[in-house]
From TrEMBL:
<dbReference type="InterPro" id="IPR015375">
    <property type="entry name" value="NADH_PPase-like_N"/>
</dbReference>
<dbReference type="GO" id="GO:0035529">
    <property type="term" value="F:NADH pyrophosphatase activity"/>
</dbReference>
<dbReference type="InterPro" id="IPR000086">
    <property type="entry name" value="NUDIX_hydrolase_dom"/>
</dbReference>
<dbReference type="InterPro" id="IPR015797">
    <property type="entry name" value="NUDIX_hydrolase-like_dom_sf"/>
</dbReference>
<protein>
    <recommendedName>
        <fullName>NAD(+) diphosphatase</fullName>
        <ecNumber>3.6.1.22</ecNumber>
    </recommendedName>
</protein>
<dbReference type="GO" id="GO:0006742">
    <property type="term" value="P:NADP+ catabolic process"/>
</dbReference>
<keyword id="KW-0378">Hydrolase</keyword>
<keyword id="KW-0460">Magnesium</keyword>
<dbReference type="InterPro" id="IPR015376">
    <property type="entry name" value="Znr_NADH_PPase"/>
</dbReference>
<keyword id="KW-0520">NAD</keyword>
<keyword id="KW-0479">Metal-binding</keyword>
<dbReference type="InterPro" id="IPR020084">
    <property type="entry name" value="NUDIX_hydrolase_CS"/>
</dbReference>
<dbReference type="GO" id="GO:0046872">
    <property type="term" value="F:metal ion binding"/>
</dbReference>
<dbReference type="GO" id="GO:0019677">
    <property type="term" value="P:NAD+ catabolic process"/>
</dbReference>
<dbReference type="Pfam" id="PF09297">
    <property type="entry name" value="Zn_ribbon_NUD"/>
</dbReference>
<comment type="similarity">
    <text>Belongs to the Nudix hydrolase family. NudC subfamily.</text>
</comment>
<dbReference type="GO" id="GO:0005829">
    <property type="term" value="C:cytosol"/>
</dbReference>
Length: 312
């Protein structure tokens, strides 16, 4: 099995999450007050950045305590962890009004996806922003108890919600998604979703359902979307995908049938591609202009491993 490269986005978590200390309120409060502590600020799931060196400069997502206090009390606070230099990082969410508090200070809100895909901040910071986005989005959407309907409160440094009415505890969710490259000798199976960029094809993917193993989910999704039967499912690598809380589980599988029946509800097209064609798509040199996902996405690395023969 080929080694997953570091280029996969959201996989370079720079933080020690210190998860065993999350319930120690005094410990977490002391970290929050340390001068070296920094804060990631979000408004409606969109991170705020300080623009450094004017319009052509960089995007700095790290705010100090003084800067982070400008918009007033945050809606949510999550302790993300500490970096290698023991500097703590917290994520704070604010409502829409917060943005105006920064006007004139060269602060702007930019969606995380383009920030991440264009590499506008270093890869480890992209991972931390992804962790923050997933957690703050979870708080936004889980304010009421799924058991009794009453409001819940944040606990455990932001890693749990507790219902004061029925006592139920609620934990942040992760939604597993299998993404798989199905191969048949020198061919592999790729599909197109209608919203993809023109000419782009990628590995098939789908959510894992309750009661399924990853292997079952791979075979079910491939049969459902392309009518192809497969076997020999092998794990490659995984990728957190914080839109809002997926975990992409990259796999390879071997086809045992070849006749494609496309599920038009999900996909615009599914085809078999030769190894040479996939190599050209990954390199951006395909004669008809067909393309593959960029290195930021785990799909790119599934295709590349097949194209370069690393899989064999
Ligand atoms: Zn409840």
């Amino acid at each position: 099995m080929p080694t997953p490269p570091h280029a996969i986005g959201f996989t370079l978590d720079p933080l020690d999450r210190v998860s065993e200390k999350r319930d120690d309120e005094a410990f977490v409060a002391a970290l929050r007050d340390e001068p070296s502590t920094r804060f990631l600020l979000f408004v409606n799931n969109v991170p705020l950045f300080k623009r450094t060196n004017g319009r052509d400069g960089g995007h700095d997502p790290l705010f100090d305590a003084h800067e982070a206090a400008k918009p007033g009390a945050p809606l949510q606070t999550v302790f993300l962890g500490r970096d290698a230099d023991k500097r703590s990082l917290f994520a704070l969410s604010f409502d829409e009004d917060a943005k105006s508090q920064f006007e004139g200070d060269s602060v702007e809100a930019v969606e995380l996806r383009p920030i991440a895909m264009q590499g506008l901040v270093p890869a480890p910071m992209v991972s931390a922003l992804g962790e923050a986005r997933s957690m703050l989005d979870w708080h936004r959407r889980h304010r009421f108890c799924a058991n009794c309907g009453q409001p819940t409160d944040s606990a455990g440094a932001g890693w749990r919600r507790v219902c004061g009415s029925c006592g139920a505890q609620h934990f942040p969710r992760v939604d597993p998604v299998v993404i798989m490259l199905v191969t048949d000798g020198d061919h592999c199976l790729l599909g197109r979703q209608p919203q993809f960029l023109p000419g782009m094809y990628s590995a098939l993917a789908g959510f894992v359902e309750p009661g399924e193993t990853f292997e079952h989910a791979v075979c079910r999704e491939v049969l459902e979307e392309a009518g192809i039967r497969c076997t020999d499912v092998r794990y490659f690598a995984s990728q957190p995908w914080p839109f809002p809380s997926s975990l992409m589980i990259g796999c390879f599988a071997r086809a045992t049938s070849t006749e494609i029946i496309v599920d038009r509800n999900e996909l615009e097209d599914v085809r078999w591609f030769t190894r040479a064609e996939v190599a050209a798509m990954v390199d951006g040199t395909h004669e008809q202009g067909l393309s593959a996902p960029k290195p930021f996405a785990i799909a790119h690395h599934l295709l590349k491993a097949f194209a370069t023969g690393e899989l064999d």
